[in-house]
Specification:
The protein is an alpha/beta fold. Helices cover 29% and strands 27% of the residues. Strand 4, helix 5 (115-127) and strand 5 form a beta-alpha-beta unit. The structure holds S-adenosyl-L-homocysteine.
Length: 217
């Protein structure tokens, strides 16, 4: 694991990344502030450090990736996170997105189906001073015991929108989920306007690793 050192150089690279994201259309200042704060290079092996502040996805082990900063920023912007909101994240992965949500003041519940990543991230985030509730399990089912949630964020490409996640959203809550079975997903935003009633928007094409079922493990 890396020595956790955040130098002026890293901070400068983060400011440059934030500028780049602004140019690419990210407008939410709170999201950009969070990206400026979270040391993304902590999530990279030493050998790959130079890649940490490029706007690119990257392998994080167990065949998974840390999402591209633009995608993280875009999804977080759509989620409309306010301090104190209870947020469910599907696909903990490296925990980078989790840290962004925590920086924005959310109370985060996060589920990962790969044991290796779950074990690693659950230890690593507290080392950085980030506290979330970590769960090893199947994101399709959400977390009925802790529902309802103000926001739900899916960070893997889902073949369809899981009914359980829609159920676990408060009225007025928002689900952001990339939907599609092929190489490209459509970023969907579901706003729960009443029980069993949703306002649905499509927000463009993105590429995610697939959201897998327990059976496909
Ligand atoms: N938010 C992560 C992105 C990781 S990529 C980050 O910032 O690094 C998507 C993650 O979703 C992977 O770690 C993958 O293992 C996980 N995943 C895939 N299917 C899942 C499922 N059914 N339930 C929970 N996590 C799942």
């Amino acid at each position: 694991m890396n020595e956790l050192k955040d130098t002026f150089k890293h901070q400068g690279l983060r400011r440059a990344l934030v500028k780049e994201l602004r140019v690419k259309g990210i407008r939410d200042d709170e999201v950009l502030k969070a990206i400026e704060k979270v040391p993304r290079h902590y999530f990279f092996d030493n050998a790959l450090l130079e890649h940490a502040y490029q706007d690119k996805a990257f392998p994080i082990g167990a065949g998974q990736t840390i999402s591209q900063p633009y995608t993280v920023a875009y999804q977080t912007q759509l989620l409309q996170v306010d301090p104190g909101l209870k947020v469910l994240e599907i696909g903990t992965g490296s925990g980078y997105q989790t840290c962004i949500l925590l920086e924005m003041g959310a109370r985060v519940y996060t589920i990962e189906r790969q044991k290796l990543l779950f074990d690693k991230t659950k230890l690593f985030l507290p080392e950085m001073g980030y506290r979330a509730h970590f769960f090893y399990g199947d994101g399709y089912l959400g977390l009925p015991r802790f529902a309802p949630f103000d926001r739900i964020l899916v960070t893997a490409g889902a073949p369809y929108v899981p009914e359980d996640l829609l159920k676990q959203l408060v009225v007025g809550g928002i689900l952001v989920i990339p939907v599609g079975e092929g190489a490209v997903q459509d970023m969907k935003v579901y706003t729960k306007v009443a029980d069993n009633q949703f306002n649905i928007k499509s927000m463009g094409a993105f590429k995610f690793v697939p959201m897998l079922s327990e059976k496909a493990r």
